[in-house]
Amino acid sequence: MRCLARGVNLRGVAVEGRGVVEAARTAQDTWPTATAAFGRLLMGALLMTAFLEDDTPQRVSLQVVCKGPIQEIFAEAHAHGAVRGYVVNPHVHLEPVEGKLDVKGAVGGGTLHVVKDLGIGEPYHSSIPLVSGELALDLAHYLARSEQLPSAVALGVKVDSEGRVESAGGLLVHTVGEVPDRDLARLEEYFGSLGSISGLMAEKGPRGVLEEALAPWGSYAWVERAVEWRCRCSRERARGTLIALGREDLKRLLEQGGTRVECRFCGKVYGFSREEILTLLKELEDRPGGCGK
Ligand SMILES: [Zn+2]
Fold first, then answer.
1. Four-way CATH pick for 235-286: 3.30.565.10, 3.30.70.20, 3.90.215.10, 3.90.1280.10
2. What predicted TM-score, i.e. pTM, was given to this entire model?
3. I want to staple 3 with a disulfide (CB 3.0 to 4.6 A). Which of 34, 86, 156, 219 is the partner?
């Protein structure tokens, strides 16, 4: 859900991410601390696409390359609400700190790489050092520094005793122009006093959370968008990956009698027989001017 605040240059977006993060956990087999870190980044990417144009191929990807045991997390969200991602080391579970999953411990220091593809011209790339490792503050820092959009961000994932996602939520409020200090202070105070965003989301839903966050001003111009964990992989794309390997590697796969291409995001496996690889090799040779290198 997204909306505007009345009489002040603020806009807000909130995402209820339980279903998305649970699907992501299953696809990547993440352990609790990794689930929380991954879920936060996925929801962060969704929040950042909320103001892109609907039904366009516009997308935002967030990649955290870090020193902590999780090593790398990637999330890619589309303007139409689909999100996917991967975790390099999904089997991270650390002792909780003050009852909360230790995302900071799993991530540690590192770099946040952001790519915004608006479907016109070259995608926009930006990299910024992580300032906290909790990810919400890191995204707020990125938005303020790289996009000149001072923002407040909260992200949270709660897992049950079996490691399944119990609740997940994200909240982002942007400034979109001059905002009086008094109003900024009210917003900061709200975010500072915010307990568990995942719990609040489960209780109030995205609209309720936004109404509460923007209560001093009131909210209007509501837009709702469905979000889902969805991978865009296909057999055709897997073929493309194989062709990109080039002739020598394809010949090696041919000698092996075939191969399998596994999607990094959803884990789906595409098998290619010896005959299919022969066809790919032939395609490479038939390409105009191509020698298949
Ligand atoms: Zn896939």
1. 3.90.1280.10
2. 0.92
3. 219
